[in-house]
Design a protein that fits this description.
The complex is a heterodimer of chains A (about 110) and B (about 110). Chain A is mainly beta and about 110 residues long. Chain A is built from no helices and eleven strands. The model of chain A has no long low-confidence stretch (mean pLDDT about 95). In chain B, the strands form two sheets. In chain B, strands 2, 4, 5, 9, 10 and 11 form a six-stranded mixed β-sheet that branches. Classes of the chains: A mainly beta (about 110), B mainly beta (about 110).
Amino acid sequence: NAGVTQTPKFQVLKTGQSMTLQCAQDMNHEYMSWYRQDPGMGLRLIHYSVGAGITDQGEVPNGYNVSRSTTEDFPLRLLSAAPSQTSVYFCASSYGASGAYEQYFGPGTRLTVT
Amino acid sequence: ILNVEQSPQSLHVQEGDSTNFTCSFPSSNFYALHWYRWETAKSPEALFVMTLNGDEKKKGRISATLNTKEGYSYLYIKGSQPEDSATYLCAFNTGGFKTIFGAGTRLFVKA
């Protein structure tokens, strides 16, 4: 099993550009989520999905869109990049949507917006 | 707004020292408390999940306890080794689909 994979590993964008961060998991997990990690702060939830076709907002959803057309894939779209979106982005998945399941994290995408 | 506090922010110990850190969370609407270990340049990996007041979990030299009534959890490392150097995250869940992470305690173990 590859687990949770993310691409790209690094990305530099100019303000106003758009892009999609890819996330895939091969564990048939029901729950998937996107977090951003900024210095001195905990992982903050951007969006999550409890199954194909079902997504919802987390703590910091503004400026991001998600979709979940398959169980395996959960891409994160930046609509119009801003310097405040410079961060490290982690995708995670868990077997169930209950908060008692451990989450498996991808390797992260380091995004810089200039 | 739910808040999860971890202390200390960072900790430097010598190889062989035992150490512990604290995670504080709201005592109302508790469902689950997670501990993750995050090594530099890697992804967070789950250590423990605890759901009942008084739960104690152990994995090798690392153990954790949970007090849901007063809203805290302790993580203990016995006989720290350099390979224990990492950031230790706790995460709190109220039973919904959102898990709130603390900022972590960064542990440095000097050989």
